[in-house]
Structure formats: structure tokens, C-alpha cells
Amino acid sequence: MIELVNIKKGFGEKVILPDVSAVMETGKVNLIIGSSGSGKTVMMKCMVGLMEIDGGKVLYDGQDFTNMQEQDRKNIRRQIGMLFQGSALFDSMTVEQNVMFPLDMFSKGSLKEKKTRVMECLERVQLKDAAKKFPAEISGGMKKRVGIARAIVLNPKYLFCDEPNSGLDPQTSLLIDRLIKEITHEFNMTTVINTHDMNTVMESGDHIVYMYQGKKQWEGSNKDIIFSKDEKLNDFIFASDFLRDAKEMRQMEIFQEKDWRSKLKKE
Amino acid sequence: MLKGMFSRPENMKMYWKEFMRQCVDIGIGSLGIVFIISLFMGAVTTVQIAYQLVSPIIPKATIAQVVRDTIILEFAPTLTCIVLAGVVGSKIASELGNMRVSEQIDAQEIMGINTRGYLIMPKILASLIMIPCLICIAGFLGIWGGLKAGEMGGILSADEYWQGLRQEWKPYNIFFSLFKSFVFAFIISSVPSYYGYYVQGGALEIGKASTRAVVVTCVLILFMDYILAALLLQK
């Protein structure tokens, strides 16, 4: 579990996060959503320590990450896997070498053991055949999947994904969403995803934090979103007429399902 | 930046691998340009000194003596390092800049790697080892280029050249040249590393950082060249 307690962050005079508190739950896909400039990327970077916070603290399973010694911070970071928006693969290395890099750096296993683990991870993301290719030779979706494989190769306790679906077609997006969801539930990880992709919200949002102008505006699950009366959230999530219609249809479906179930119970 | 480099390596083997990669990149990668520059540098120096020494009372062997000292004291370390500032410096700045912009450095930080130690220290150490070697090679090739230019241009014979090379030989010049090369090697690797590591923005900023790194490196080399000459060549 990751707790954010009264996080404050600004750049010069501009305050990005005035005072944010939130809890990222273990074994769940936690989403941070919000429009561009709402502070979600800053919040994620503060969480992983890529940005120092001006006030408050971040707790990883109760341990104060913010005020830790550098060595202790490194130990926590070794339990973190992160998928970056641009994948952040090392250009000079093949897919296999990219995934093996964290193992080479931190694992004491033999080369054979490391290769086996790399192949397991690549198989998981369905990229075993691309092992010998360089990042420049594979598609954006494949890069994201390599990024996921690299992020999970050390069996992390915490997985962070910064806009995992940006620039991907809906099918590939869905594949990645499902993959992250599966991995999270299978390994009981604390996964935090930063997104504004509505498919991701509805597909994998076990726990959602909606950010509006640097503040936590709403919190709930993907099921709660359908019935949320928060105007700002509804404007953001169901921005188009098509999505508003889809929401109403989904609401009706849920009501009908409930009605049908209660009738069944009575009978 | 430099202070942050010194922490216990996460995995010595990986640091060693990166150090060797940098040695190959900086050393072997720059051999071609150093080879060409030093040969022509020696050849041109011989021709120009012969052109200026017109007095019949000055023996021709003096040309070789002047070529030797000019190359060892100034041309091999300074000229070569100015060129290496362009070749190696821009490569270091753009490599680190690209890694920063494409979040590769952040990815390594998240893994718990001290990126300053892993990415910058091997570059500085490799430069401190490889650049003095390149300067030694440049010195030998420059002198050899002078010999060939002298022979081919009919300026002086090989015997006269060898005789000149042995005249008033001061081993201290070698120490001075190597000392300069270590100082320049540090500048060539650390200044571009700083500009590349702290770049912010996109491709345009990488280009700007790279150019700025080369300019600052060249100016610092020239400045240190004067300071070192003033301090170490005082009679």
C-alpha cells in the first residue's frame, strides 16, 4: 500500500499540488485520472521520488519514503517497476538485453537463470520472438510491452505506469490494460496508473483518483463512476454525447440486472 | 554532479562493462581523426618552420628540433584535445541528453541505480585513461608526419631529422604534455556530461546543450592551456 499524506509540490510560485492525500491499495489497479495539467504526472513523480516534494510524506507500506536515507530509498526503489510514457527503452540494447538489464544490475543468478527469467517475462507479454530486435525495429505497442516486461522482471511490489496507452490503437491499449490488470492481481502488486484513457478507466479501474487543478476531486471504483453525480468528473469522463449515451445505457443495464436479480430472489 | 558520482557501485561488473565500452568509444572511436590530424599537423609544422628558418647559419636539423618541441608541448595535447572536445564532447552531451529526454535516466533512477555513478564516472575515467594515450599517439604520428613531409619536400633528410630530434632533449616536456592531457581529458568528459545530464526539453535542447558543451570545453581548454604553461614552464 502506498499512502500520500498532505503532499505539496510547486515550481517557483506556481503551486501544482496544494495538499493531496490519497491511498493506493495493494492488489488493485489504482488509477490517477485528470485532464492535462491537473498534476497527475507530478503526483506520480513525487510518489516514486523523481521529484522532491515540498511538504507532506509518501509512505510505502508504512515506511516514510520521503525522509529516508539514500540507501534505504534505493532498497525501496528496487521493489518498484515503472513503465514510462515513451517506454524509455535503452536504444543501444536489444529487447532481451533491455529486460535483462535490471537482473544484470541486481540479481546474483547465473546467466542461464537470468535468460530463463527474461524469456518468462517476454512470453508473458507475448514478445518472445522479438527478443533479438532493437527498440527501433519494433512498434510502439511492442515497446510498451517490453517496458512492462522490464518493469516486472524483478518481481516488484509496486508497479507504476505513466500513460501506458498513449499513442496506441484501441486493441493494443486493451491488450496492455488487461496485461497490467492480470499481473497486478496475480502477484498482488500495488499498481498505480496515470491515464486519461477512458477505456482503461472502465476496463481496469479498481480504484480511481480523479485530480482536478491539483486537488483530489473524486475517489471510487469504475463501478461507482457510472453513478457518480460529480459534475466535474462527469464532464471529464463522459465528455462526448456518445459517451454520455453509453453511460446512460450502462446505468439502465445495471438497473435491469438488479431488478432481474431481485425478482429471481423473490421467486 | 561530481559529488554524486561517488557511491558504492550497485554491481561492479556492470560498471566495469560500461567503463570498457566508454574506453572503446572514446579511445578506439577517436583513433581515425587523431591519426589524420596529427599526421598533417606534423607535416605542416615542418614545412612552415623550414619556410621561416631561412638563415644559412641555422642547421637544418633545428627544424626537427622545433617540430618536436612544438608538437610535444602544444600541438599534440592542445590541438588534439580541441578536436576531441568536438568529437567526444558532443557525443557525451548528446548521448546523455537523449537519455535524459527519453526518460532512460529516470528509468535507471527508478531501478535504484546511481545514474551519475553509472553513466558519468565511467566516461570520465575512460577519458582520463584513453585521451593521454591518444595524445601520445598524436605526438609520435605528428613527429613522423614531419619527417615524411621533410623528406618528400626535399627540406631535410631523414638523418638530419633524427639528429634534430635528439638535440637538446628535455624529458620534462613529456611530463608537461601528459599533465596537460590529463587536465584536458577531465574537462572534455566532465563539462559535456554536465550539459547532457541536466538537459531539459526536447531534441532542440539536446542540440543546444551539445553545442554549448563543446564551446565551453574549448574555451576552458584554451584557458587551462595558458594557466598550465604559465605555471609549469616558468624558468
Question: Could you walk me through the main structural features you see in this protein, from its secondary elements to its overall organization?
Answer:
- Chain A has helices at 40-48, 70-77, 95-106, 111-124, 140-152, 170-187, 198-204, 222-227, 231-237, 241-266; strands at 2-11, 14-24, 29-33, 55-60, 63-64, 80-83, 158-162, 190-195, 207-212, 215-220.
- By secondary structure, chain A is of the alpha/beta class.
- Chain A has a domain at 2-79 and 156-222: Rossmann fold.
- In chain A, helix 3 crosses helix 4 (111-124), helix 4 (111-124) packs across helix 5 (140-152) and helix 6 runs parallel beside helix 7 (198-204).
- Chain A is globular.
- Chain A starts with a strand and ends with a helix.
- The model of chain A has no long low-confidence stretch (mean pLDDT 87).
- Chain B has one domain (3-232).
- In chain B, helix 2 runs parallel beside helix 6 (172-197).
- Chain B has helices at 12-52, 61-101, 104-110, 115-152, 158-166, 172-197, 203-232.
- Classes of the chains: A alpha/beta (267), B mainly alpha (235).
- Chain A binds chain B through residues 48-50, 70, 73-75, 77-78, 80, 82, 84-86, 88-91, 101-102, 104-106, 160, and chain B through 7, 10-11, 13-14, 98, 102-104, 106-107, 109-114.
The first-to-last residue Cα distance of chain B is 38 Å
Helix and strand succession of chain B? HHHHHHH
Q: On the 0-100 scale, what is the average pLDDT of chain A?
A: 87
Helical percent range of chain A?
A: 40-55%
Largest sheet of chain B, in brief, is:
none
Approximate shape of chain B: elongated
How would you sum up the global shape of chain A? globular
Going by helix content, strand content and strand pairing, the class of chain A is alpha/beta
CATH homologous group name of the domain at 2-79 and 156-222 in chain A: P-loop containing nucleotide triphosphate hydrolases
Count of spatially separate domains of chain B? 1
Largest sheet of chain A: 6 strands, mixed
Q: How many extended strands of chain A? A: 10
Overall structural class of chain B, as computed from helix and strand content, comes to mainly alpha
Radius of gyration of chain A: 20 Å
Helicity of chain B, in percent?
A: over 70%
